[in-house]
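User: I'll paste a sequence; please echo it back and then give the predicted structure.

Assistant: Echoing your sequence first, then the prediction.
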Amino acid sequence: MRGRRAVLATLLLATVLIVVYWLVWFLVDRSILAMETRPAYIEHEQSFVLADAWLALCTAAAALALARRGRLALFWLLAGGGAGIYLGCMDSLYDISRNDWFGAGGAGYIELGIVVITFTFAIAILAWTWRNREALLRGYP
């Protein structure tokens, strides 16, 4: 199936980036990632942990199923793509309502980059999955 290796690499990269983000946030230095230190902002960011964990599970499971050429790849790809779109929308609305992207300096641009990467990844995965849905359902021997 054309593009399978690129999708696998993207899924693995997404999984690693999500895990690294939260490791840095909780164990290293959240000021590397945080745009501000207000308690409301910290609470907002930390409300994404479970949703990001779901996205990481989806991307990891999709990568595993795709590598094994299993039919469950279709489910995990669709679940991961949908989760990425949802998270991108949630993050965007918060950032736009507060003018974070262009009003917060360098940290705002990092946040904008995260949102753009999230949408790009999700749309690309969904588009590839849709184009290859029949082969994915067959298990593409």
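The mean pLDDT is 91. DSSP finds seven helices and no strands in the chain.
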